[in-house]
Amino acid sequence: MTRSLAQLVRDYLVERRIHRNRLVTKDGHCNIEYGHVRYSNRFAYLLDLWTTILELRWSFVMFLFTASFLFSWFFFSVAWYWIAYSNGDLWWQYPPADHNPCVINVYGLTTAFLYSLTTQMTIGYSIRVITPLCPDAIILLVIQTITGTIIQSFWCGIVICKFSLPKKRAKTINFSETAVISPKDGALCLQVRVANLRKTLMVGSNVYGKLLRTTITPEGETIIMDQIKIDFLVDAGKDNLFFACPLTLYHVIDKTSPFFEMAVDTLQQQEFELVVFLDATDESTNFFCQVRTSYIPREIMWGYDFFPIITRSKDGTYCVDFSEFARVVPVLTPHCAYCFNNETAHNYDSRYSTDDKGLSCRKSSVNLRRSHVNF
């Protein structure tokens, strides 16, 4: 029990360290901190108040929503209290029986607050009604009505926009937790699976990737986050994908690919992060959204392929089994991209480890390309 608990704690610490070190999390959030930002730049967030509030969490939005109404009600209640005080309407001023108040039945701070709430929310007057005897009270009534309308319109727009943010649509588009490297159509490919959980299509889908790693230039300059373009394809191309069912995106590992110099026994020793992007427009809302995820070397499985999840029933209906979405199966795969292009090289059998049992002599790369099958 102690060993298992210690292992759980160790695994948790490792996952936490990996989550902190990666630039893009699995759900697409950018894990980056901004330091030494000048106050003048921070003031720009207030100038762009609409976007700033939209990016806040719902808890903060509801707090600001409630606070804005309470503050405006109380602010104007103090103004109504001052008008009543100036006219001698308050109860402790002992107005005579024939006294004409500015607002009927407003004789204290509590009643002024209730009248302020009623005026701003336009829920209808009852026993507290303004009279035409005080011009300053009429002006305050107009100002509070306009102010209340602006506040309600602002928060109504905020709530509607937060409910319809495109990033919420991105939650229903899933990438596979792992990427795989295996032969495909006569080439060694890195493959990623993506699925749309809704039946509504994503129009104009475009997929691409960026490989992030630290590089040193010939001049000795260290580039901390060097970005290398990674092209992903499907059988129909890479633009305007027909995203009606789960797709397998693949990147051909050729001599121009940064994965060409990697092998099964050196992949886990690399330090890089592969970020995959999917840009599309939802056909229901016409909102553009971007979905992204990332893969680090430990999340790339060499010598595996994705298990087929699309079948067709007897009546001709296409079925997608999402329970097998993350399932991978081992396939006979070259030890490296260089081996794939050689006539005599070694294959890597992922059913074994990276020792000699996992290597088998390959007489012809052509035979492998034609005969790679799932185990």
UniProtKB/TrEMBL annotation:
Write the record's keywords in alphabetical order, separated by commas: Ion channel, Ion transport, Membrane, Potassium, Potassium transport, Transmembrane, Transmembrane helix, Transport, Voltage-gated channel
What does the record give as the reaction this protein catalyses?
Answer: K(+)(in) = K(+)(out)
Answer whether the UniProt record assigns the keyword Transmembrane to this protein: yes
Pfam family for this entry, one = IRK
- Localization annotation: Membrane
Which parts pass through the membrane?
60-83, 103-125, 137-160
Domain Potassium channel inwardly rectifying transmembrane residues, every copy = 24-166
Q: How does it sit in the membrane?
A: Multi-pass membrane protein
Q: List, alphabetically, the GO terms of the cellular component aspect.
A: monoatomic ion channel complex; plasma membrane
Q: Which Gene Ontology MF annotations are present?
A: ATP-activated inward rectifier potassium channel activity
The Inward rectifier potassium channel C-terminal domain extends over 173-344
Keyword Ion transport assigned: yes
Q: Which domain of life is it from?
A: Eukaryota
UniProt-listed GO biological process terms:
nervous system development; potassium ion import across plasma membrane; regulation of monoatomic ion transmembrane transport
Indicate the family of this protein. Answer: Belongs to the inward rectifier-type potassium channel (TC 1.A.2.1) family.
- Protein name, entry field: ATP-sensitive inward rectifier potassium channel 1
